[in-house]
Design a protein that fits this description.
Largest sheet: 11 strands, antiparallel
Number of strands: 21
Distance between the termini: 31 Å
Number of helices: 26
């Protein structure tokens, strides 16, 4: 396939020559500048990424918010169990509980739709920084500047879509206010489940083991990409055929060894490593702890609901898993920031930087106020952050409040229309609003929403200095007791707690529906106004940040005489390093491999460490384990550690050996490495992958799916 060659370096900075060989999430444009051969790579840069030919990159896909890789010429993709979890939950019922029991399609015809999953394949990319930034030359107003940048990004995307029919186009910000790259993606919409291990295998250890080491879970799944008979992407159809990828990964059934050179290609999510200390303080004091607090409440409530109702357990399983993953990650970040003194080390570095700036009049004129301005901007965000987050969490997690807001906004719009315009609106928009309401109220539990609203209202009285939340007191009363009376009284009267009643009225008489008067509608109107003001204020600050953050980077580069790797932003990156253990605490060394023996050591009769009978039986059979055992360990390896630089989005990324062969699937980080989003350090940053030998063992001996191994060229 002939791909557009990158115009110039993706980084408009100096060549990265001072970075350690085992750190960094490198854009593909940087691969040729790295001494990968010296690090241990046996592939050439062209074999990794070739814009005019076939390379390892062509086997990589972005799968939802995760990464995956083709492992056969028939569109078979390997990713994580937790990356396919949502689709598995969507396909599950009380009668067919694929979450608990797993799923295996013994033939292509029995592969089922993986609802919600799509695959994106990077086709090419090109630097468009000049085009984007030239459009805002001379624009000093921060709101107009950030709007101008975003508008130009969308214009560039629209123009490219006209030229590249059938491709998905996305302009990504590599450095705020400095660098923008346009990516072309081929998107495949028909994805089907092939093999998902039982939950007790794919999630062995559950939330107890999440973000920790040692690990013993088989966090992998197989899905397949399908396209229409002519090869073009299409929605699910029985007539569709397996996608033929340009390239697919070969398996190394020998797996990794300690100190082996390894690398990952994947789509890491967001990192914030080029931010000042004031940003980290803002995260530490506000975002991380409050998000965790709300998530903990929601998780506990949904878990209790599921204990009494299997259908609810299935319905809430994916959301619980997602919330729990975020919460533990955030708590790990809080611990990590404190443990390594990250904020203070940033403050010390910035003090040295400021001293260097002040030593030279020209530098002082150019950069002198940069750090002070950034501190001021993050201080402004912090001032209103608790109230802003309260509003955001309320709207994200309460269908009742969001539905009331929707009605309030619609009422305000209708009040400005003529009768004929209203009639047209009811006819054209009611079906759309009904559809949105159906989505909003899916898996709705009135009791849970009532309790959540009451809990959130009580919190609003605890916040100090958040004057933009005074509307709560104006509507609900001056005290928490008043708010509890308000919610109790309005719960009985409100249509928003009864979806069937709401739907019936909206369908039968939209005019009457949108003339309703309710205290909840007034609440929705006020919270919407607060939300819009918060967004506007944040947008203004973000506009200023696009001016001052690049100046901070310029100053740092000039000071350190080195370049920087752009923060991860869900675009394809390479990271490399070695299979290594580590010391998370003084006197405590963790080896880099776990094995089947560890599964037996953790075995319990209930909870997170149940071993399925079939796995228990296979562990006991030497003829089953011998094929996949490591000769040195004398057992089947399950998971392994490495010092690669990964973050969210790298879930499902292939772990590759020096020859580019698949030896594992990345699925997590150690608890000490949750801080990776803010900083990386070889001492504490360890990522975790499921060993390919455990993948093969489970697929072959436990699932009885040897046909998948044959498809992948194993056995």
């Amino acid at each position: 396939m002939n791909k557009i060659r990158l115009l110039g370096a993706v980084l408009c900075f100096m060549s990265i020559t001072s970075s350690r060989a085992d750190e960094g999430m490198y854009p593909l444009s940087q691969i040729a500048k790295l001494d990968l051969k010296r690090a241990g790579m046996r592939l050439t840069p062209e074999q990794l990424y070739n814009p005019n030919g076939v390379s390892v990159m062509d086997a990589l896909v972005r799968l939802g918010g995760c990464t995956g890789s083709f492992v056969s010429p028939e569109g078979l993709i390997i990713t994580n169990h937790h990356c396919a979890f949502g689709a598995t939950a969507a396909a599950s019922t009380v009668q067919n509980d694929y979450i608990t029991n797993g799923f295996l399609a013994k033939s292509r015809e029995k592969e089922i739709p993986a609802k919600g999953l799509t695959v994106r394949i990077t086709a090419s990319y090109v630097d468009v920084s000049d085009i984007i930034l030239n459009s805002v030359n001379g624009v000093s107003d921060p709101l107009k500047r950030i709007d101008g940048i975003k508008d130009k990004m969308r214009q560039v995307e629209r123009a490219e879509r006209e030229k590249s029919k059938g491709m998905e186009i996305e302009v990504s910000e590599m450095f705020p206010g400095r660098q923008y790259v346009m990516f072309r993606y081929k998107t495949i919409k028909d994805i089907r489940l092939v093999y998902v291990p039982q939950r007790a295998i794919g999630e062995f250890g559950g939330e107890t083991d999440n973000w920790v080491w040692p690990r013993h879970n088989g966090d992998f799944s197989f899905v397949r990409a399908y396209v229409s008979p002519d090869g073009s992407p299409s929605e699910y159809s029985e007539k569709n055929i397996p996608f033929k990828p340009l390239n697919y990964l070969r398996i190394n059934p020998e797996g990794p060894k300690e100190n082996d050179f390894i690398f990952i290609l994947g789509y890491p999510g967001r990192t914030q490593r080029h931010q000042p200390a004031s940003y980290l303080q803002y995260q530490y004091d506000n975002i991380l702890p409050y998000t965790s607090k709300v998530n903990d409440w929601l998780i506990d409530y949904m878990l209790n609901l599921g204990k009494a109702d299997k259908a609810l357990e299935i319905a809430y399983s994916s959301k619980i898993k997602s919330l729990a993953n975020v919460t533990k990650n955030y708590k790990g970040k809080v611990q990590g920031i404190s443990r390594i003194g990250l904020i203070q080390s940033k403050i010390d570095e910035e003090s040295q930087l400021q001293k260097w700036i002040n030593e030279n009049p020209e530098r002082k004129d150019k950069y002198g106020s940069t750090l002070a301005k950034l501190n001021e901007l993050y201080s402004k965000l912090s001032e209103t952050s608790k109230g802003d987050m309260w509003v955001s969490q309320f709207l994200n997690n309460s269908p009742t409040v969001y539905a009331a807001l929707t009605v309030a906004v619609t009422q305000d719009a209708l009040s400005k229309m003529s009768k004929s315009q209203k009639d047209s609106f009811y006819k054209a928009e009611t079906p759309k609003i009904l559809k949105n309401m159906a989505s909003l109220y899916s898996n709705y539990n009135p009791k849970m929403d009532y309790d959540f609203i009451k809990w959130m209202l009580n919190q609003s009285y605890e916040f100090k200095g958040q004057t933009h939340l005074d509307f709560v007191k104006n509507i609900c009363g001056k005290t928490e007791a008043d708010a509890e009376k308000w919610i109790s009284k309005n719960h009985d009267k409100s249509i928003f707690f009864n979806y069937d009643k709401l739907k019936k009225l909206l369908e039968s008489n939209p005019e009457k529906f949108f003339k309703m008067k309710e205290s909840f509608i007034d609440f929705g109107r006020d919270i919407n106004e607060i939300s819009l003001n918060s967004i506007k204020n944040r947008k203004k600050i973000e506009g200023d940040l696009t001016v001052w953050l690049p100046r901070l980077l310029d100053a740092k580069m000039e000071w350190k005489q080195s370049g920087f790797i752009p923060d991860a932003n869900a675009t394809l990156r390479l990271t490399y390093g070695y299979v290594r253990g580590y010391m998370p605490k003084d006197g405590e060394y963790h080896k880099p491999f776990t094995s089947l023996a560890g599964i037996k050591e953790k075995q319990e009769s209930s909870g997170d460490f149940i071993i399925p009978d079939i796995l228990d039986q296979m562990i006991a059979r030497k003829d089953a384990t011998a094929v996949y055992s490591d000769k040195v360990m004398g057992d089947v390896p399950v998971a392994f550690l490495y010092n690669l630089d990964t973050t969210g989005g790298n879930s499902g990324s292939p772990v590759l050996d020096a020859d580019g062969r698949l030896i594992g699937v990345n699925f997590d980080r150690a608890y000490t490495a949750t801080i990776n989003d803010f900083a990386w350090n070889e001492k504490y940053s360890r990522s975790i992958g499921v060993d390919i030998r455990y993948v093969l063992f489970i697929t072959d001996k436990v699932a009885g799916a040897n046909f998948l191994l044959k498809e992948m060229g194993v056995n």
